[in-house]
């Protein structure tokens, strides 16, 4: 996998690595709401949470899933899933239908990122928290 915010390595990049790289990307290049990237001509624009994951994975803006080699797509999708799981635990959606039943909804990283109460600090903390949780659940004896 070509990751622009990670030193060259022969080790496989995990979803936790990608989430940490996305947090670093936001620290270096800025955070954005409303679209994946701020409207600018810079090759490293401010990005939303998922846009930062894509930049960390692909190294450029675009439709990251289709731009990625087939072997790397699972890491990108697993990183987004790990962020979604983290948001479900820490920022749950409390929805009730018309009959008073709880709806089983996942917290979307897209809508959560765009919430007016969300800040860059929240997004960076969520990316790092999701990375830590992924590492805790998936790494055996390694640093996480």
SS-based class: mainly alpha
Please provide the ordered H/E string of secondary-structure elements: HHHHHH
Overall radius of gyration = 15 Å
* Range of strand content: under 5%
User: What would the average pLDDT be, to the nearest integer?
Assistant: 83
Oligomer: single chain
Q: How many helices does DSSP assign?
A: 6
Task: Count all strands and give the number.
Answer: 0
Helix content: 40-55%
The low-confidence parts are none
Tell me, what's the shape?
globular
Task: Give the terminus-to-terminus CA distance.
Answer: 19 Å
Largest sheet at a glance? Answer: none
Structural write-up:
The chain is mainly α. It is built from six helices and no strands. It has helices at 15-29, 49-58, 64-67, 70-90, 109-114, 120-138. 35% of the residues are buried.
Short précis:
This protein has 144 residues and is mainly alpha-helical.
What topology does this entry show?
Elements: H1 15-29, H2 49-58, H3 64-67, H4 70-90, H5 109-114, H6 120-138
Helix pairs in contact: 1-2, 1-4, 1-6, 2-4, 4-6
What features would you highlight for this structure?
144 residues, mainly alpha
């Amino acid at each position: 996998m070509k990751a622009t915010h990670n030193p060259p390595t022969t080790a496989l990049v995990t979803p936790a690595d990608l989430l940490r790289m996305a947090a670093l990307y936001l620290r270096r290049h800025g955070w954005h709401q409303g679209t994946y990237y701020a409207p600018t001509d810079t090759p490293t624009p401010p990005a939303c949470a998922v846009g930062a994951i894509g930049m960390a994975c692909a190294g450029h803006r675009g439709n990251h899933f289709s731009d990625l080699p087939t072997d790397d797509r699972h890491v990108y999708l697993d990183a987004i899933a790990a962020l979604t799981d983290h948001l479900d635990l820490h920022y749950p959606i409390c929805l009730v239908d018309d009959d008073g039943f709880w709806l089983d909804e996942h917290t979307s990283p897209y809508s959560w990122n765009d919430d007016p109460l969300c800040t860059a600090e929240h997004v960076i903390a969520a990316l790092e928290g999701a990375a830590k949780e992924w590492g805790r659940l998936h790494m055996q004896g390694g640093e996480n």
